[in-house]
Amino acid sequence: MSIPAGCHASLSFYLHIDTQETTTTSQYDRLTLATNGTTKATFSNLNHNTGYAVHTYDLSSYAGSTVTIKFTGTEDVSLATNFVIDDTSLTLS
Question: Measured between alpha carbons, how far is 6 from 93 in angstroms, rounded to an integer?
Answer without folding.
Answer: 9
